[in-house]
Amino acid sequence: MSAARRLLAPEPGWTTTADVVVVGSGVAGLTAALHATRAGSVLLVTKVLVDDGSTRWAQGGVAAALGPDDSPEEHLRDTLVAGVGLCDEAAVKVLCDEGPSRLRELIALGAAFDRDPSGQLALTREGGHHRNRIVHAGGDATGAEVQRALVAAVKAHPSIRLVEHALVLDLLRTADGRAAGVTLHVLGEGTEDGVGSVHARAVVLATGGMGQVFSSTTNPSVSTGDGVALALRAGAAVADLEFVQFHPTSLFLGPGVTGQQPLVSEAMRGEGAFLVDAKGDRVISTEDHPLADLAPRDVVAKAITRRMLEQDVDHVFLDARHLGDLLLHRFPTIVARCREAGVDPLTDPVPVAPAAHYASGGVRTGLDGQTDVPGLYACGEVACTGVHGANRLASNSLLEGLVFAGRIGEALERDLPPQGEPVVGQGQPVLLDADVRAELGRTMTAGAGVLRSAASLQATAAVLDELGTRTAAAPGPAAWEATDLHQVATALVAAASRREETRGAHWREDHPEASDAWRGHLVTTLSGTAFEPLEAS
To answer: How far apart are CA 201 and CA 253, in angstroms?
Structure first.
């Protein structure tokens, strides 16, 4: 791991203040901002526009035990099974117990979820769930509706200021290491370079994922791991980075296409679609897993990848033709996107392939979102609360953002730290050439993607080491993002190399079975990666 403590950047040319600064505007950031207003003034900063994050792309829905035949205990059991022995059960209990009330809070804000003819919330299933407990909006446009409702509430709140086009750089800390705000780059703000600082009594990271570390991902271009990299440089610990979930079914757009790939929600499999190869043979059956096509995502992604390797092809197919007109009103967004790509799901099998989708690991937090750095909190995909373990259960991600962002707001209301005096320019700076980004993504997909082995990870680490020597002297957004991606990739590969087993989303070809010796968490700091075993249950 690089020992660099900050990004190479100009000294801040302007300063603003708030009681709480929230970085990120997905479901977690928007919810955290709303709840944090109970503690004081809030400045919400977001990288591009307020609705450009991953939340609006979410198709499936929000999982919560709302049905008459369901319970938080059953939701907890399904989550623990998907997490393959590495979930923090206390965190999962918080998620499942508090989930229904947090979802009702969202509905009270104006989020309009789909309902059945009787007016009750329409509940469906996704992979890994044994009950219908997924609420959705607009068929397959849940994220967009959640984002719309939260953005409207944030913009209407008198205690929240919104700053767009703001790339966070580093955490400001006091001499004794407490969070005291952030440095950031805002286009057109203050000085020509736009670098400034926000002094705050608490900082909440809600920066989303790091999917852009791979060449093929369902994540938007802004998902460059900025929050994880910032936390590492600030001295916080990150955990479970090796568990990157690859969504089994992204829309395959053709050989060599990189960047964000359209998602084909597993809710289609929940409605009865199934995976086949070019011969029409089923890719996964009940012999492979009792839930077959609705098995947890790691199981399905592995089955697809194995079939692709066996047949030397780069995709398989999702057959939903028998669903007929149901596709049009249940999945209008997916149907439209497929048709844009020249495929009609009503008449054609849809070409799909796995793509990097969700980071189950991230900045390690407690049950109230606190990190190892006093005054620094994290929630949403950037955080590792422990609820996902080795593999996230479908539609638990939006719920996690709602639940733990709400808990951060309550914690800040109880005990907002005093404003500390920030020390600017602490530590050794680093900046890599922006051109390393493309090669980094290709290298990570080839050697640290769905298929991993000691040899592939060693080769990936060697390339990352070489890329780390390509430094730059001219700071700017492209170079800062490339540097963040490199720092996150290096930490991810270190953890994946160390975990010599296959568990959940982490698949080691040279260690194909799970091992009780690895029932624990790999915790990474700038000083290295350490294994923390779970207590015997």
So the answer is: 46
DSSP codes of every residue in 71-112: -HHHHHHHHHHHTTT---HHHHHHHHHHHHHHHHHHHHTT--
Instruction: Give the DSSP per-residue string, 458-515.
Output: HHHHHHHHHHTT-B-SS--HHHHHHHHHHHHHHHHHHHHHH--S-BTTB-BTTS-S--
Cβ(495)–Cβ(523) under 8 Å? no
- As a whole number of angstroms, the distance between CA 363 and CA 375 comes to 14
End-to-end CA distance of the chain: give it in Å, rounded. 33
Chosen CATH of 246-357 out of 3.90.700.10, 3.30.1360.40, 1.10.10.10, 3.30.565.10:
3.90.700.10
- Domain pair 246-357 / 431-514, same fold: no
Residue 287 CB burial class (10 angstroms; 0-12, 13-18, ≥19): exposed
Q: What are the tokens at 33?
A: 């901002």
What pLDDT is stored for residue 188 in this prediction? 72
Domains of the chain by residue range? 246-357, 431-514
Any catalytic annotation for residue 407? no
The per-residue pLDDT for 189 is 66
DSSP string, 331-368: -HHHHHHHHHTT--TTTSPEEEEEEEEEES-EEE--TT
Instruction: Give the DSSP letter string of 242-283.
Output: T-EEEEEEEEP--TT--EE--B--THHHHTT-EEE-TTS-BS
Q: Which residue bears the tokens 């829309």?
A: 251
Q: Compute mean pLDDT per 10 residues along the chain, 537 residues long, and list them.
A: 78 95 96 98 92 68 94 97 95 98 96 94 88 89 90 97 95 96 86 84 97 91 95 97 94 86 89 96 94 86 89 96 94 94 97 94 98 98 97 92 98 95 86 96 91 96 98 95 98 98 94 96 96 80
| Lookup result for tokens 């309009």 | 112
Per the residue annotation, which of 201, 297, 437, 499 is the catalytic one? 297
Q: Domain 431-514 belongs to what architecture? A: Up-down Bundle (1.20)
State how far the Cα of 536 lies from the Cα of 529, in Å rounded to an integer: 22
Q: What is the widest separation between alpha-carbon atoms in the chain?
A: 66
pTM of the model: 0.91
pLDDT, position 306: 85
